[in-house]
Amino acid sequence: MSSCAKKTPAQQEGTGQNKTQESAEPAKNLVLRSSLAGAWYSADPQALTAQLDDLFKKADTNAVDNVIALILPHAGYQWSGQTAAVGLKTTDKKYKRIIVIGPSHHTYLEDVFSAPKAAHYETPLGRIPLDVEFIDKLLKFPVFQNLPHALEYENSIEMELPLLQYRCKDFKLVPIVAGQCSWEAVKKAGDILKSLVGADTLVVASSDFVHYGSQHQYVPFTENIPERLKQLDMGAYEYIAKLDSEGFLQYRRKTGATICGAVPIAVLLSMLSQPSQAHLVRYTTSGELTGDFSNSVSYLAVAFSGKWANYPEIEPDKDNPELSEQDKKQLLILARQSILYALQNRRFPQPSELGATISDAMSRPRAAFVTLKKHSQLRGCIGDVFAQRPLHKSVIANAIRAGFSDTRFPPLTQEECKDITIEISALTTPHPIDSPDKIRLGVDGIVLNKDGRSALYLPQVAPEQNWDLNQTLTNLSLKAGLPPDAWKEGAAFLVFQAVVFGEDK
Hints:
This protein has helices spanning 45-58, 77-88, 132-138, 155-158, 161-168, 183-194, 225-241, 245-255, 262-271, 286-290, 325-345, 360-363, 391-404, 461-465, 469-479; strands spanning 2-3, 31-33, 67-72, 97-103, 113-114, 120-123, 126-129, 144-145, 172-178, 201-206, 211-212, 277-285, 296-305, 368-374, 377-383, 420-427, 431-433, 445-450, 453-457, 492-496, 498-502. The protein has two domains: 2-21 and 319-502, Hypothetical protein ph0010, domain 1 (Glycoprotein, Type 4 Pilin, 2-Layer Sandwich), CATH 3.30.700.20; 67-106 and 132-144 and 174-305, Protocatechuate 4,5-dioxygenase, Chain B (3-Layer(aba) Sandwich), CATH 3.40.830. The protein has 15 helices and 21 strands. The strands form four sheets. Strands 3, 4, 5, 8, 9, 10, 11, 12 and 13 form a nine-stranded mixed sheet that branches. Strands 1-15-14-16-21 form a five-stranded antiparallel sheet, covered by helices on one side. Mean pLDDT is 92; it is low at 5-22. By secondary structure, the protein is an alpha+beta fold.
């Protein structure tokens, strides 16, 4: 979430610390580096290898023929590493490609899956090449977006990688971070993936199972906890064994079972079909390991045998629907109604509560900024830089945040609403440029990154201020909390375009 510029350069907006700190390095050179080594596991290659040696030596399991997929836990190795090793040891097959699908613990994503455009992922055990061609195919579908920051500190992906490097050696990686997704989005992602996987592909759904206790805000029972936990976990496994993706999600909703990787598991199940078979190879809990069930997390390792069905490759939509004039009108109605709803009800509305018609173009993942002006002066501006949810939901959320969460202004009042006009900027996907000279003022929005600091201007900011390129980048540097000439050396830039439309008042 980010804010845009005020009307006068003397009034800078905040520190520039926002979620625009994406690498502007070209994907062919980009290395995604471990963000957990030294905290979740050892950053020393020899110590890490010794720990993995011990886990796999102790992993007592039977081989499973033709393993094509696994469900593995992703907690610290002292808790779930043994379960994960048992799962991986079911197979000694070599895989050319390993897809790891994990839930997002830190980045909000709705009906979106993130797959990064990068060359390698680096852990203390070395660099893993990414399957760039496979990821490029995924990114042709709107349900998959390139959000590299989704991988930062994401244990659901990273905790699997040293284990995979140790056991599987040479392979190409496809890391996918799953958001909070509807069944429709799960089914869509599963259909796309199963049309692309081949015989030498392993799919790993990364998930811990029930998180029990006050620490996890889930206490459905207080007696016979170990037995009741196992009953709850095995109830979920019954749907996994039946390869019933939708039933699994319904079970989770019905019971409230705190299974963090429910969406990755559901995607995997939607990819599988008979005669594929599930094999539960290990079940344990942290309560069993510590002897304390007041707070406990469950861990399952499940291997799936069979072969991938030869589904025809799905063609991406040829036409990315443009916003019609009616779409723009509906989005502006949504923005205004959202602000009024939040004033009256003190909560975010559901789209169905606002009475707008949601078209296909409005339901596609797309980032948006919402700008509020009062008597032509900025009164609030907040938005998403990258597509983290459907466009209409981005507009709803950012209209409310522009009205009540822009720290440069007091919260909007009911009396002010009649004097507010709303402008929406629907963004294209940002991409890196190698020189600021390539910025087209009035056409390109700009994201500046340097020394861990970041700031953004929408395309319309420079023309509104009558700035040339030098003035624009100087003010953008100041907005990021950097010296005015910081943009001249060592800075990285992303650019994007925007469809801008507003109320006529």
